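Model the whole thing, not chain by chain.
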Amino acid sequence: MNLDLHFPPRQKLAFLPTPLHEMRRLREAVGGPALFIKRDDLTGLALGGNKTRKLEYLIGDALSQGCDTVITSGAAQSNHCRQTAAAAAACGMSCHLSLGGNAPDTPRGNLLLNHLLGAGIHHAGNSRKGEQVPELATNLEAAGHRPYTIPYGGSNAIGALGYVAAVLELHSQLRESGIAPTHVVFASSSGGMHAGLRAGAAILGANYEIIGIAIDKEQGPDGLSLGQRIDKVTGEVLDLLLPETTERPETPPTILNDSYLGEGYGVVADPERDAIKTLAANEGILLDPVYTGRAFAGLLDMIRSGQFKKDDHILFWHTGGAPALFATDFA
Ligand SMILES: *Cc1c(COP(=O)(O)O)cnc(C)c1O
């Protein structure tokens, strides 16, 4: 499809393109289809991850509005919050984080990194999806700052643009390498990446299946289920990118596999531990305990239970998160 796309301002934060490569040893160990990995754990900003791509557009938008402060929210070990703190530091902005849980005696993992990156940290107890953020914004405004609020996970249409751009990047790598995935599998949690991938695939007329492994079954403060949010944001991204008069391309379905939610968000169990060890021991690649460990456990289970054909080509999109390994018990 030859479309006129209107990308809004983008602040460079990531080292792109991220690598795309085959995982031959893993395939030998597991059997089944050909396996590839797209390394968004290597986007580079303060240990990387998928939020860096979203932040290029979110921070671009904040700066174009003259804001000097960013506020966002997430779980205590949020990778999104850590990458937001780093993006703000890199752009000379202040950053305030509303984080689930209470202040531990010794901050570890992403929480430690948030301190090092100079973010203001506000512990929010049971709320990890930004319930306290409006009040925080009002207080910062009253103190003379110009805050820009990023929703938890950076999952609005502006953030999702980062994954439309990522699909353009992927397709240029696919053309160069001759790799032709039949399925793209990744961890889906606040839905922005999933929405961006669908919108990008729609624009380019991609024919692979886009399969999100659901990580978190709890609704966000918007009251939408994950599937509903993905659909809503996908439509909004296409509206942002395409002129009103352009006919909307056919959008691939929202495929969410919610078989691997386990005991809930962030509860690490045997499937996550096994998946992390399997990829580490066969390919030297580190997953994280909350998102990619769970999604990869799901992918391994789907392969082992015969849900793919032998001649399928599966691309696992690594979304980062390894700092949380250092806040997890692996005994
Ligand atoms: C945030 C995150 C995801 C999920 O991305 P969403 O756009 O929120 O669905 C997956 N993996 C990691 C490591 C993350 O930090």
